[in-house]
Amino acid sequence: MKIALIGNQNSGKTTLFNVLTGMNAKIGNWPGVTIEKKVGTIKGTKHELVDLPGIYSLSPYSIEEEISRKFVFEEKPDIIINIVDSTSLERSLYLTTQLLELDTRVIVVLNMADMLEKKGITIDVEKLKNELGTDVIKISALKETGINELVDALSKNKTKYELKKYDAVIENELSKIEFRLEKKLLHKKFIAVKLIEGDERFSGYKSDEINSVIDGLKPKYDTDLEEVIATERYNYIDSLKDKVLKRKMVREDISDKLDKVFLNKWIAFPIFVVIMFAIYYLSVGVIGSYTVDLISLLFENIGMWMESTLATLGASEWIVSLVVDGIVAGVGAVLNFVPQLIILFICISVLETTGYMSRIALLLDKLFRKIGLSGKSLIPFIVGSGCSVPGIMGSRIIENQDERKMTAILTPFIPCSAKLPIIALFAGYFFENNSGLVSASLYFFAIFVIILSACIMKKWVFKNTSSTYISELPNYKVPSAKYIFKDVFEKVTAFIKRAGSVILICSIVIWFLLSFSLNLEYGVNVEESILAKVGDKISWVFYPMLGENSWGATVSAIQGLVAKEQVVSSMAVIAGFAENVEEGSSIFGNGENGQGTGIFSFFTAASAYAFMVFNLFSAPCFGAIGAMKRELGGTKKMLKAVVFQTILAWVLAVIVYQIGSRIEMGILSVTDLVIIGIILCIVVAIVVKKEKNKECSGCPYCKDCDKK
Q1: Which string of DSSP letters, residue by residue, matches 396-456?
Q2: CA-to-CA distance for 279 and 258, rounded, in angstroms?
Q3: Cα–Cα distance between 488 and 351 in angstroms, integer?
């Protein structure tokens, strides 16, 4: 038996799916799209359960709704489990009224039943069952109550009767349309409603007789028929709610009290800043650095053991160098930062599971809408903090084409897990006492660059960006340790697999190019190597941001196109040492006392910050570039995006270095920068105000206008 699980976002659908299937689930993508597909077998049965994307209606206006509609029509599930948030019955029942128009058995599941009493809500389940004409079961997916009753109901045969949701005129015309549709056609009632709504996706079912019925219906209403249908649905839901739902006055719950703080218009954003600073302070600062020492010691011992073991076995000098200076140095340099990644992933996962990230999306929506984005763009940005590839693909949830393309281009600007080793390495060495603050500053620098880039693209490239962001704010929840462990484990495992494959191969290539000259002579001085000769030819490009023609820094930055983690790995291999990489001593040392080769000893705090800025905002890895190509719709557009990202990164890095180096020389002071910043803010505010005044239509409602 094939069963579909359908419900709104934040209704507990994923929790119920996990409870019903356990770990017996396959995860992939829906054909043709990158939205996640989950299929599993319900425990103790042979029933196949398909978890459909979270949706608010079956009208196929978004990719998720299109997927759900196609599945119902083409896959023909035997049963639909419609999970409903019982604490927001009126919102959830809109989708239910559509599902009950299908010729498929529907079981309505009232989830979060344990929350009803806390909210002072009472639902008469028997009356609701009689009104809807189908099974209604009260459960708590989180506490796993009512699950057995749900599973038992799947095996029972239940014939539902047809609901009368619309006024007599519409119901009469629907019957006429159904009569004129093919006799063997499934879901006639649903299709008839769609034809009245004027949904072009169902125009293939039209005939002259059906058109005549619809044309005769239009003059009977003063408004669009789609709006009439929606109004009738809501009227039915209001009537149903009055019959089955009772509320009593209760005190504000904890979510309401917390929202008065976290969504306060004066302190919401400062709180967000403090939280993000705390996350980077924990992951890159004191705690993260301490945990890295343990991994560093492990790889130091591995390198020494491998060197002595290979020498004992009689391995050639070049084999020893390949394993120790190439593989162990390259891969170990990246894996040293796994503890910091774990802390970062735990913090982000906690913010997501508690419900705080939904508040951030709402908080930033107003700002984003002014620059051509919306709160929906924040979802790919959040996903992109783990890896840019799924973040870019996640932009498909955005309906507006221009906004979707802008989001795909801007998502790589978010510091992903692959960029954390670069940030941790440079911040930990050059800003030892303020590594957390410097790391957090890059995160907020990324937000600034996203806003700046969005303004540029909205002005000259993507001019048709106007969409709204609607999301149900979930109640604050205590984080689930099980979910956090699984989420972090999957992300860290993916990072390690990458280090064990891409980084390994790249490290071997870098070692080869460093160990041989253009004449393929082994053991040459590093300055005579193939890599050094190639790097020397293009190092001038990086001179304005580094103050030095460094072939080592140049080729390491270019390696970031393969994988951003490879920047640190390349520097470690070039420096020629595996130990203490996380502290930077073997990379940035001057070559004395066995500490480094001196190749990267030219770095200063200013050039270090500039180098981080360039690697943060330049073209992403090949995987992300491939994802951008798919989302932007072609190679030409992708290349334009890559050029834009790289040029912007170069300009920003040069500005940072030129200002930073002058501060180091005492030509500029921090006070000077603050004053310049204030002047620039005033100038920008004046320009923006003038631009808005140009757009004003002169209507009398300026008091409530977004353009005021």
Answers
A1: GG--SHHHHHHHHHHGGGS--TTTHHHHHHHHHHHTGGGHHHHHHHHHHHHHHHHHHHHHH
A2: 20
A3: 13
Helices 225-244, 125-132: inter-axial angle, 10-degree rounding: 150
Q: What's the rounded Cα separation, in Å, for the pair 39 and 18?
A: 10
Nearest alpha-carbon partner for 181 in 271, 103, 98: 103
Q: Is the pLDDT of residue 470 over 70?
A: no
Q: How many whole angstroms separate alpha carbon 277 and alpha carbon 213? A: 62
When pLDDT is cut at 50, 70 and 90, the band that residue 109 belongs to is very high
| Token pair for 698 | 């002169």
CATH architecture observed for domain 168-247:
Orthogonal Bundle (1.10)
What are φ and ψ of residue 469, in 5° steps? -125, 115
Q: Kindly report the average pLDDT of the chain as a whole number.
A: 77
Please state which CATH class domain 2-154 belongs to: alpha beta
R_g of the chain computed on alpha carbons: 30
pLDDT tens track for 282-334: 776 656 556 656 666 676 677 677 777 777 777 766 677 677 666 666 666 66
Half-sphere exposure of 677 (CA within 13 A, CB side): 7
Q: What percentage of the chain reaches a pLDDT higher than 70?
A: 78
Domain ranges of the chain: 2-154, 168-247, 269-668, 670-708
- Letter string b/e over residues 421-460, b meaning 16 or more CB atoms within 10 A of that residue's CB: bbbbbbbbbbbeeebbebbbbbbebbbebbbebbeebbee
Give mean pLDDT, residues 519-542: 79
Show the 3-state SS of 582-645.
HHCHHHHCCCHHHCCCCCCCCCCHHHHHHHHHHHHHCCCCHHHHHHHHHHHCCHHHHHHHHHHH
Which one-letter DSSP state was computed for residue 6?
E
DSSP string over 198-219: T-GGGGGG--HHHHHHHHHHGG
The pLDDT value recorded for residue 678 is 81
Rounded Cα gap, residues 360 and 344, in angstroms: 18
Helix axes 635-665, 605-617, angle to 10 degrees: 170
Q: What is the mean pLDDT of residues 530-539?
A: 83
Q: In whole angstroms, what is the distance from residue 431 CA to residue 436 CA? A: 9
The amino acid sitting at 103 is D
Residue of 180, 166, 179, 178 lying closest to 220 (CA atoms): 166
Per-residue DSSP letters for 540-554?
GGGHHHHSS--HHHH
Q: How far apart are CA 444 and CA 274, in angstroms?
A: 11
Convert the pLDDT of each residue in 256-271 to its tens digit: 788 788 878 788 888 8
Q: Give me the count of residues in the chain.
A: 708
Nearest CA-CA partner of 618 in 587, 636, 641: 641
Tally helices (H) and strands (E) across the chain: 33, 9
And the tokens for 705?
């206008």
Q: What is the pLDDT of residues 477-493, one digit of tens each?
A: 777 787 788 878 877 78
Torsion of CA 366, 370, 374, 375, to 10 degrees: -30
Phi, psi of 164 (to 5 degrees): -110, 95
Q: For strand 105-111 and strand 79-85, is the pairing parallel, antiparallel, or unpaired? A: parallel
- Residue 168: is it exposed, middle or buried by C-beta count within 10 angstroms (0-12/13-18/19+)? exposed
Question: Is the per-residue pLDDT at 668 higher than 50?
Answer: yes
pLDDT digits (tens, 9 = 90+) for 211-248: 888 888 888 877 778 888 888 888 888 888 888 888 77
Residues 6+ apart with CB under 8 A from 257: none
Q: Which residues pair with 3 in a beta bridge?
A: 49, 79
